[in-house]
Amino acid sequence: MRQSLRKWLACCAIASVGVGAAEADFESLLRAAEAGRPWHLATTDHPLVAYLQHAALDRDLAKAPIEALQAFVDRHPDARLERSLRQKAIEHYSKAGAHAKVVQLAGETGDQATDCRIFASRLALKQEVEVADATALYRRANRLVPACSAAFDWLEAKGGLSEAMVLERFQTALDDRQLDLARSLRSRLTRSHGTWVERSYA
Predict the structure, then answer these.
(1) CA pseudo-torsion sign 115, 120, 123, 127
(2) In whole angstroms, how far apart are CA 61 and each of 45, 71, 97, 118, 199?
(3) Is 37 helix (H, G, I), strand (E, B) or coil?
(4) Which residues, including other chains, have CB under 8 Å from residue 44's CB and lie 6 or more apart?
(5) 32-46, 115-129, 151-165: which has the highest mean pLDDT?
(6) Mean residue pLDDT across the chain
(7) Are 112 and 145 contacting, i.e. CB atoms less than 8 angstroms apart?
(8) Residue 192: which residues within 8 A CB-CB, separation 6 or more?
(9) What contacts 9, CB < 8 A, 6 or more positions away?
(10) pTM for the complete prediction?
(11) What is the rounded CA–CA span in Å between residue 192 and residue 194?
C-alpha cells in the first residue's frame, strides 16, 4: 500500500478515534493484515475495517475463502476497494482455470479484461451466452486485450463478427494510436481492403 494512502488512512483513524495512538495502532493492524497475522478492532463499524479486510484477503487469493471474497466484493460493489479486489480475484481464478469461482464472483466491473474473463468462464462451463454480449465486448475493445481472445473467437465462430465491425475497430485503433491492436487487425483486412489498410496503418 502506497505511503500517501497509508498517511491518509492514518488521518482517518485519528479523526475517527481521537489523537494519540491511533496512527500507530492502525499501522500495526495494517501490517498484521498484510502479513497474514491476526488483527482485531473493537467494532466492525470502524471506517477502516474495509482496508484491513482488503489487505487480509488480497495477501493470498489462493488461500482466501471464496465466501469471504464474495461477501466483501458484494457489500459495496461500486466502491474502489471492492471493485479492485473483484477484478484481481477473477483474474486469479481465471488463470487457475477455476471457472466456477470466476462466475460466482461475476458482477459489474467496468473493466474490459475482467468482463472477458467472465464470458470465457461461462463458455468453459458450457453456460448459455449471448452473441449480443460478445458483440458488446468487441465494440468496447479499444486496445489489445489478450483475455478477450476466447470471447472474440467464439463470436467469430458464431458468425457475429462482421468485416464492418473489424474495420470500425481498426479505424478506431488508428485514431487512438493503439498500434498493437491495429497491427493485430491489419492482416484480416488486407485481403479485402488491400493497400488502403497498409497505407492507413503506415
Answers:
(1) negative
(2) 24, 14, 14, 17, 47
(3) coil
(4) none
(5) 115-129
(6) 80
(7) yes
(8) 163
(9) 26, 30, 48, 51
(10) 0.76
(11) 6
